[in-house]
Write a structure and sequence with these properties.
Number of strands: 0
Helix content: 55-70%
Order of helices and strands: HHHHHHHH
Radius of gyration: 17 Å
Structural class: mainly alpha
Largest sheet: none
Number of helices: 8
Shape: globular
Number of domains: 1
Length: about 220
């Protein structure tokens, strides 16, 4: 049900954006707000549960946290790098988080609601930028996945450093999430980190294909 509701909301925002004029301004503003407010609203949601929270739920160092901030500013500024990272991270990483959500509480708890609002906001922004704003990756297209991959490796190094210092599990770089996920099928730590890097690079190239086909067409 959460996936269905989120998909409908995403379709409404993208459709409104494509209508142009005031509808586009409103849709862009709502989507930017959802992305930029995902972290503080998520914090408020966890506080409503009471009790002590792990460092993983306090600092915005998961890739999807960074992707939401990136997406919010991409929508507001149209900066090429921000748009590029939003598209690739949103569809290659955050979309997977929707399919195998790393959430330990269920509906109607607010952290559950905010988890899906957060991740759908990023995925919707990743689709909104090319479909509504007309964003396209810069030429040459073959280089773009490699640049995004470089940024992703930089994030992984940052996450592993933070995990070592804080005892956290940002980016799931220290161990798999508690919930079942793709990581469970990629071997033990640290082997699954290399498997994830290969999958990520492959996904980045696949996500570039629509732009190759459009140019060749």
């Amino acid at each position: 049900m959460a996936l269905g509701i989120g998909a409908v909301a995403a379709a409404i925002l993208i459709t409104a954006g494509r209508r142009g004029n005031s509808s586009r301004i409103l849709a862009t503003g709502i989507l930017a707000f959802l992305n930029l407010s995902a972290y503080p609203l998520g914090q408020a949601a966890w506080l409503s549960m009471g009790g002590q929270k792990s460092i993983d739920h306090v600092l915005p160092f998961h890739l999807c946290d960074i992707a939401a901030i990136t997406a919010g500013f991409a929508l507001l500024t149209r900066k090429p790098l921000l748009c590029t990272l939003t598209y690739f991270w949103g569809l290659a990483a955050t979309f997977q988080a929707l399919l195998t959500p790393a959430i330990t509480v269920g509906f109607p708890h607010w952290p559950f609601v905010m988890f899906f609002v957060h991740h759908f906001a990023v995925v919707t922004a990743a689709l909104y930028l090319p479909l509504v704003e007309g964003w396209r990756p810069k030429a040459p297209l073959w280089r773009v996945p490699l640049e995004v991959y470089g940024c992703s490796v930089s994030y992984l190094i940052f996450a592993m450093t933070a995990n070592h210092l804080l005892g956290s599990n940002f980016g799931f770089a220290s161990h798999p999430p508690e919930n079942p996920s793709l990581i469970d099928h990629l071997g033990p730590w640290p082997l699954y980190l290399f498997s994830l890097q290969g999958i990520a690079l492959g996904c980045f190239f696949v996500l570039t294909l629509p732009f190759f086909l459009k140019r060749s067409g």
